Amino acid sequence: MTGASAAIGVFGGSGFYSFLDDVEDVEIDTPFGAPAAPVAIGSIDGTRVAFLPRHGRAHQFPPHAVPAKANLWAMRAVGVHSIIGPCAAGSLDAGIAPGDFVVLDQLVDRTHSRPDTYYDRGDAHHVAFADPYCSAIAPFVAAAGEAVGITTHPRGTVVVVNGPRFSTRAESRWYRAQGWHVINMTQYPEAYLARELGIHYAGIALVTDYDTGVEDDPNIEPVTHEQVFEFFEANVHHIRDLLTVLIPTLPAEPTGCECARAIGPLHHYE
Fold it and tell me: For 162-199, where are the E strands, in sequence order?
């Protein structure tokens, strides 16, 4: 472990930096190359927090190229045991509107060719992932969302697509027919790699759009790159507000979940 440390980590965009006090950048060398950026360690109301922009500080890593294995390993290297993973997402449900938060509890992986395990060598180990998000942290996230005055859905399923393209109408129609709630490009393998490391992971989606539209409303157009970035930038302060409220309330050691029990032998990379 490095000299600087924090028990709580956050993945997200660069706008979070301004809410950290006494920030120190920590360069981490991992067995999987460099993470997307140095880990910034600071504090919120006295709580030490490690922050890492998953796409890099210049947003140079598109979703399918995010160095997730290095990012998660770097968080572990500075002592993180709980991670909050805010992300932008499209709504697949007319009842979930742009601007809402969704506290994720289930995940469907539709990605391909992404390095997604630390058990690609060494001893075989099969990880339980029936409940991909930390059930101990989720209630704190939902309470913080309500506290900042944002409509917050306490559970939801995210389908993760490879990107960088958006969905076809047929794909989006299929996802909606399955009852899935939001669509995103980064939650896998990020959430799963956290589980392999025994890290508590909470995913929270900020809904930016309606994916390919809402079928019974022809006035809602399919999403564009420009729309997502413009909406997210205009609403990212809601994420910062949520994190500022949430982080001081998080338990020092979350209990009652399966996250930390999943870890297996990792000595082949130590």
Answer: 182-184
Domains identified in the chain, total number: 1
pLDDT at 74: 98
Q: Are 125 and 267 contacting, i.e. CB atoms less than 8 angstroms apart? A: no
Q: What does the CA dihedral 168, 103, 96, 158 come to, rounded to 10 degrees? A: 20
Question: CB 88: neighbour CB atoms within 10 A?
Answer: 22
Is residue 85 within 8 Å of 191, Cβ to Cβ? yes
Q: Give the residue numbers annotated as catalytic, written as ranges.
A: 209, 211
Q: Could you read off the pLDDT of 138-155 as tens digits, one per residue?
A: 999 999 999 999 999 999
For 36, the token pair is 């997307």
pTM: 0.93
User: Which amino acid makes up residue 215?
Assistant: E
Of 88, 84, 39, the C-alpha closest to 201 is 84
CATH at residue 219: 3.40.50.1580
3-state secondary structure of 194: helix
Residues 6+ away with beta carbon under 8 Å from 92: 159, 172, 175, 176, 180, 181, 182, 183, 211
